[in-house]
Amino acid sequence: MSSVKPTRILEAFRKLSEASGKKTMLDPWGTTVIEDYDRLYEEFGIQPFKPLLPKMPNPNLVMRRGVIFGHRDFERVLGAMKRKEPFAVMSGIKPTGEFHLGTLMTAREIIYFQRQGATAFYCIADVEAYEDNKIPFERSEKIAVGNVADLLALGFDPDPKRGCVYRQYTEQRVRDLSIIFGRGATLATMKAIYGERNIGLYMSALIQAGDILMPQLQDFGGPKPTVVPVGVDQDAHLRFTRDLAGKFRRKYGFVPPSSTYHKIMRGLDGSPKMSKREPMSYFTLTERPETIAKKISNAFTGGRPTIAEQRKLGGIPEACCIYEICMFQFVENDSDMIKVYHDCKSGKLLCGEHKDQATEIILNFVKDHQRKRRQYIGKAREILQVSK
Question: Which CATH class name applies to 279-377?
Answer without folding.
Answer: mainly alpha
